[in-house]
Amino acid sequence: MQKKKTKKILTILFIFLGLVFFSSLVSNKTKNLFHLILSPVENYFWQKNNSSLGFINCLFNHKEILEENETLKTENISLLTKLNDLGTITQENEALRKLNDLESEKGFSLLLAKLASRGIEGDSLLINKGRKDGLQVGLTALNQAGALLGSLSEVLDNSSKITLITSPNQIFDISIKSEAEVLALAQGKGDLNLSFQFALKEENLSLKDLVFTSGLGGKFPGGVLVGYLEETKKNEAEKFQEGTVKPYFLETTLNQVFIITNFAKAPEGN
Q1: What confidence tens digit (pLDDT) does each residue in 83-108 have?
Q2: Pick from 93, 105, 138, 263: most CB atoms within 10 A?
Q3: Which residue windows are coiled coil (predicted)?
């Protein structure tokens, strides 16, 4: 639509200039007649002066406009980079504050690490800290909110693998906070699923009951948040009830992790 309008203006402009040139070759009377005829056209171009001149200026300043656009693009990229850096700094500051809180509340010694990637076999993560940072197999890993992630199952010089609590290799004791404390056993089922079993059938468990590590068995320190009950099942022929646990680390964005460095017990099978 804009192109058609511009083409129309240019056509009228060329006709107008041609008539003006022709009028310069004829007598004064003829010139006067031309002026009478062309006055509406002159008035039109006077009113449209800004837009037509703007278009003409664009034609002559095309190179400068392209250069300005490139400059603006560069400045925009620089601004986005600074905003990203600011967001990263903010995340790191929040992680450090949480680290200090956990160390004070739980008495943990923690090492902050960044998530590198998800493990190839699933239910595992890779982090950017390793043996050179004092890590060893069996150390407990938490997410940035302080919830249980899993344990270190492989440690290299500059990186480590975390086997998540949802891995079938993970079996550990838990405490369910219901009407009373209910002890049970949690086991990973793979594909980020976690189950529990061996909770006494007479205990009244409810959905959303919080689940913590019990500290029994020595695999993980006690009192660490695991998740909440997602499903419970009772079998009249059995003495125990079972169900599923929703791991809390699935409820949060995972960018950084904490490694507890003053509690270690290498689990069998990891």
Answers
A1: 444 444 455 556 556 556 666 567 78
A2: 263
A3: none
